[in-house]
Amino acid sequence: MPNKVRRVVTGHDGQGTAVVLMDSDIESVTRSAGVSSALLWVTDETPADMSGSADRGARSIGVPPPPNGSILRVVDFPPVAGDIKVDNAAFTAEMGIDAQNRRKGKYTDHPFMHRTKSIDYAIVLAGEIDMLLDDSKVHLKAGDIMVQQGTNHAWVNTGKETCRIAFVLIGAQEPDVLKGTPGEH
Question: CA 174 from chain center: how many Å?
Fold first, then answer.
């Protein structure tokens, strides 16, 4: 699987004509456990500001989107096997995610487990992957789409080939069931 993604961004010229503003390959950055991602676009507000020609993907940002914003990225998950030697606190800190309270469940101690305050649209482009939740697992393959609503989850590729997923993360409010004092849930 290539470590880059072609990104084409459209906009308008000074006369209001639709034009291509950017057309280039975006290089992926490799993180813990060999997972690599290409950040394609970020918005900081809703509704999104579509004026100007600035490259809104040319910045450093963790996994969660800005409050009231969004992120578009493509992530490549390599196959993993056996015991995964990743410290969850370091893994989530690398993603820009604060320490989290977790419910107890079958998969909650998995080293890749995390949660963002966002609604995530995950479109599997190639390969296969499992999404672990607190007490369940969902197997996804190319062409499948997951709508993830701020749940504890971990992506684990136990297949033989890299799995590529396009993610759109949109800032969201905390689900009602998670509001309140830590440990109440």
Answer: 17
Q: Where are the domains of the chain?
A: 31-178
Exposure string of 85-109, with b = 16+ CB inside 10 Å and e = fewer, is eeebeebbeebebeeeeeeeeebee
Token code pair at residue 160: 């033989």
pLDDT in tens, 41-78: 999 999 999 998 999 999 999 888 999 999 999 999 99
Domain 31-178 has CATH 1.20.140.10: no
CB atoms within 10 A of CB 181: 7
| Per-residue pLDDT tens digits for 47-56 | 999 998 999 9
